[in-house]
Amino acid sequence: MAQAIKTKPTPIKKSANVKPLGTRARSAQLTRDSVLKAAIRVFAKYGLNGGSIEKISSAAKSHDRMIYYYFGNKEGLFVAVLEEIYRRFNEAEAKVNIDAKDPVGSLKRIITFIVYYYHDHPEFVTILNSENLHRGKHIAKLQLATEYSSTAISVFRNILESGQAQGVFRQDVLARDLYMMVAALGYFYQSNRYTLSAFLGEKLDASDTFEAWEKFVMHAVLSTVGYKEEV
Amino acid sequence: MAQAIKTKPTPIKKSANVKPLGTRARSAQLTRDSVLKAAIRVFAKYGLNGGSIEKISSAAKSHDRMIYYYFGNKEGLFVAVLEEIYRRFNEAEAKVNIDAKDPVGSLKRIITFIVYYYHDHPEFVTILNSENLHRGKHIAKLQLATEYSSTAISVFRNILESGQAQGVFRQDVLARDLYMMVAALGYFYQSNRYTLSAFLGEKLDASDTFEAWEKFVMHAVLSTVGYKEEV
Amino acid sequence: MAQAIKTKPTPIKKSANVKPLGTRARSAQLTRDSVLKAAIRVFAKYGLNGGSIEKISSAAKSHDRMIYYYFGNKEGLFVAVLEEIYRRFNEAEAKVNIDAKDPVGSLKRIITFIVYYYHDHPEFVTILNSENLHRGKHIAKLQLATEYSSTAISVFRNILESGQAQGVFRQDVLARDLYMMVAALGYFYQSNRYTLSAFLGEKLDASDTFEAWEKFVMHAVLSTVGYKEEV
Amino acid sequence: MAQAIKTKPTPIKKSANVKPLGTRARSAQLTRDSVLKAAIRVFAKYGLNGGSIEKISSAAKSHDRMIYYYFGNKEGLFVAVLEEIYRRFNEAEAKVNIDAKDPVGSLKRIITFIVYYYHDHPEFVTILNSENLHRGKHIAKLQLATEYSSTAISVFRNILESGQAQGVFRQDVLARDLYMMVAALGYFYQSNRYTLSAFLGEKLDASDTFEAWEKFVMHAVLSTVGYKEEV
DNA sequence: TATGAATGAGCGTTCATTCAT
DNA sequence: CATGAATGAACGCTCATTCAT
């Protein structure tokens, strides 16, 4: 502003010494991507509230202003983050081998995939927790949400129907319930591992503890669909 | 300058109208309690980061300063909150009728209790989520944590052992896994109900949807322990 | 990382949808004009400080960068705005019928013109207020300023001299004072209408209230020049 | 916040070296007053938009935070400023000697008072301009506004009625119009003095120019009420 | 002639906390 | 026990402007 007297001393900004990346400006794609990835990391670690714009921009080696340039505001960024983590999950899930002729194997593979995915992607868990704390106000803006889910559920539906046709699964189990069961068992272990560790007096981070849990989940789900495991 | 008489300056406090409570000051216990209850409500709604001292003190119809008086700082308050919600949970759980002669009935009752408790106490769920976001740093300060857990787990252990002795339950199921399974299934439904609702395109708030879920959980757990339900 | 193909990043611009205008670029003059007009509107509504570059460029359906291209910076744009509103005023004033043989009629016409002009051009009033808040620093850069004024004042001088020669006006009234009187009475009504409305408890927007004011101004000015109105 | 890592270097704040005023904190009254007075100065100089919280707090040798403590937010501060400048005006006006037996003298005194008040209190003028730029949204919150005005107008009403009863003033002049006329002539000279100076090529700051204007206003108003001045 | 990308300073506001009684 | 006053850091966001093509 023209007449405004600038009095504040120039604060030493850490983000000031951003590498110029050669002599030219960073490409738009690069900037947007690095901001988005940084946002996923920061929101995962600090939550939506604690993940400040400044933390994100400096983690992205960019500037606060760029977040507004590409995402409008913090909410817009969080919506983009939500979309991205769902997209990644779906992309990974699509690679799981589902075979109508082998419902038991398929079910086992999808269980393993989900339990491990939550375990290997703690950002997915904490970001969804943030979104739930905010009562799903951002996911409501994602038109792709239901699209993503339908594929996730239909995987279970296909497996269940194959197994039921083959007579190895019970008839009275819903795909949605089964999906939620697997998700819950994988999610909870990851989401609540700190309070559980304190509560149970046992470190849940240990890899053999986790692998034992995965076996238990497998057993529980197969029991629930009525499949008799051989010993 | 024609400045003249000035009335007492009125600082703008959003909390405002603290009741004078007759002629004597509010008792210490009363203040502490109302702050603690307000903190539970506010942390549950906004998380640890979003639940500001000011929101809490005004919700308690008290003053910021009182929080420091009784709890030292925000962290101390959150530790007290954690302790209180665990205490309440344990208190409620202690009332569940556990009978060594009726392991199946006892298991059913504890399942119902847990699933409904999470459902009826969303603050328990969101506050634990906050604590896990902060990597369990507050629960570590609670010496009572393991004490609480041991009773929770031992309930399952007792039930399991009774059932195993009677030959109605499998031998290879751990009490800890069973506890975690029930907790996960009850917790996840409540914790993730907003993202799940968007994802599944189905409101999980509906009471019949929840009741159906509780039935499913019952079936899943009984199947997992190897109990054959009559149709 | 499963990051995959990314579509072109879409920076969030509130201005947005600039029409492509067929196959060729918008002509330079057109862009400059629409920016200038938008600036008048925006500065009129928000003041110099509140009228941001972004508000103006989006109101002009153009881009921030164009403002710098055509006007150098915000100050240059404001100088151009000042010039334009003075030019418009002068252009309109030049159409008022001034007749040396009819000083009373001419005076009445110029009074009506000025009072109505301020009323019908609130942007003129608010922009001049902004310029005065900034102590006339922009108008100083306008060489045409005094040129404009000389015509405005000379209109009054001519009328006064004619009337004085005819013996219907007093000899001791200065053209400059008369000009300022008319301007003040027209300007103040428009400039301060919001505080006046609150202060007087009477809406000054009403057209009959304004018309009564114009009549009063007419009477006041004619009285001041010593003209005896017939009843 | 507990877990938030503070990375930003501590900026050197000019307001940091605030004099401690002895060993004890400043009294509330003192702080509130000095903020209010600083706000009047700063808003007068830079307008509502340009008058930043930081400019005001440092001019008051206080802290940003204190403005929120005492006035809630910037708007609340501006409302208090409006109230204060109106109060001062009314307080000063109440001291003008109004005598029913001497309507002409009373009118002259009130004209002189008003014209000089605007001249001597440029902050009154610029702050009202700011309020009008914002369409009177703050004054609407002042319940005392109409109360202030009624006294201002009633002064004119009393004078007019006395003069009319004595037969020295015309019957057809409204108190409101007369008030607005005097206000307009005094206000405009002050409010628009920068653009007028550039426009007329004549410094309106000169004290003899102002005094001549005050004489002209006197003549114009007396002519308008139909009073025949002796030469 | 026109544009997308980037930039650093500043904005109003809220934060958790301490001082002084 | 309780309180009003004060504090510095950080927050999300907007500002006018420049870079590079």
Keywords:
homotetramer, 231 residues, mainly alpha, Arc Repressor Mutant, subunit A, Tetracycline Repressor, domain 2, 2 domains, 10 helices, 66% helix, globular, DNA-binding
Task: Give an overview in words.
4 copies of one chain form a homotetramer. Chain A is built from 10 helices and no strands. Chain A is mostly helical and 231 residues long. The first copy, chain A, folds into 2 domains: 26-72, Homeodomain-like (Arc Repressor Mutant, subunit A, Orthogonal Bundle); 78-224, Tetracycline Repressor, domain 2. The longest helix of chain A is centred in the first third of the chain and has 23 residues, at 28-50. Chains in contact: A-B, A-C, A-D, B-D, C-D. The interface between A and B is large, with 52 and 53 residues. The structure holds a DNA duplex (21 and 21 nucleotides).
